[in-house]
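Design job #97: recover the sequence.
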């Protein structure tokens, strides 16, 4: 059976494609390469020994998407196709609403017309806004997110929930906390275009001398060291959760399924703690400076992961230090490609 993976050459998408291929699934990737590179496809083949189908186009082009569905027997979809930078979403709100929602609706139109089910949505803990108590479980009331990016994820969840109820379909909403790390081979990792928006790629590039200093956005938060606290989950662990969630949907006998899972480690780590752990894990220095707070950031967020452990039979098993060692291995691989 074929699984459509949109944004499948991106950071989390590429790691999930590897896990799907290793588990025996046929994979069809659609990616417009706006936040990825074509060489990732070659590296996926090298890691798995298998070649996924690949179509390079923007999912807003519905006619091309229809052709993909005509060409393959799609049994499910994992949708990673979205713009994802919190800061950028604040200054490009219309672009984020268009890209993140129109692409989702186009895929669902194909699912509706073809009677398809088993849809997994790449969501985010940003849908909770600043939760009032920790850890955050799946029953935590959703607040209006601080960022436009978070709003598009919350809207995407509502669209999918309405879709599942109206047409008796099976969906899974996976709320990630903060994915970090790279594939153990060193051939897949986060590949930011331009200045990184996420913490760990910025740390990586600063340690490598690509960036002069790491900007830490605020040290006056109500946390132990004044920097924001997040739940950092290893990307390969996260990818494996997608395979478990997909199998759960496919094995269900129920017409309508609306699964919601938090995916994290269950532990909160501050920005400064991540920087120090990176330095220790890789024996490098990361110069940094404290800057003003960044609009859209919240103070603390970490997950209650008991539901995923119970229903998906999955848990994050990789330590922060080991995750950060893979990041440096990825950077060394990238350096070698440019020599």
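Job complete. Output follows.
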């Amino acid at each position: 059976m074929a699984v459509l993976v949109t944004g499948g050459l991106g950071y989390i998408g590429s790691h999930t494609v590897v896990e799907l291929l290793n588990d025996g699934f046929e994979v069809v990737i659609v990616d417009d390469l706006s936040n990825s590179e074509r060489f990732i496809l070659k590296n996926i083949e090298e890691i798995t020994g298998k070649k996924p189908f690949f179509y390079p186009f923007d999912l807003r082009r519905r006619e091309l998407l229809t052709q993909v569905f005509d060409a393959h027997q799609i049994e499910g979809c994992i949708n990673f196709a979205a713009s994802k930078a919190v800061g950028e979403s604040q200054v490009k709100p219309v672009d984020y609403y268009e890209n993140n929602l129109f692409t989702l609706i186009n895929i669902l139109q194909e699912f509706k017309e073809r009677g398809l089910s088993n849809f997994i949505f790449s969501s985010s803990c940003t849908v909770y806004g600043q939760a009032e108590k920790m850890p955050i479980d799946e029953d935590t009331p959703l607040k209006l997110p601080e960022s436009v990016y978070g709003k598009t994820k919350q809207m995407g969840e509502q669209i999918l929930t309405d879709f599942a109820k109206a047409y008796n379909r099976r969906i899974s909403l996976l709320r990630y906390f903060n994915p970090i790390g790279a594939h153990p081979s060193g051939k897949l990792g986060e590949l930011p275009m331009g200045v990184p928006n996420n913490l760990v790629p910025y740390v990586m590039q600063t340690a490598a001398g690509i960036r002069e200093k790491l900007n830490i956005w605020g040290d006056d938060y109500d946390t132990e060291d004044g920097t924001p606290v997040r739940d950092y989950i290893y990307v390969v662990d996260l990818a494996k959760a997608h395979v478990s969630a997909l199998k759960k949907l496919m094995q269900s006998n129920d017409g309508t399924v609306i699964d919601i899972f938090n995916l994290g480690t269950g532990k909160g780590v501050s920005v400064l703690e991540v920087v120090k752990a990176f330095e220790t894990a890789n024996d490098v220095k990361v110069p940094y400076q404290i800057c003003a707070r960044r609009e859209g950031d919240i103070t603390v967020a970490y997950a209650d992961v008991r539901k995923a452990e119970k229903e998906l039979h999955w848990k994050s098993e990789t330590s922060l230090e080991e995750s950060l060692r893979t990041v440096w291995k990825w950077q060394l691989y990238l350096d070698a490609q440019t020599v």
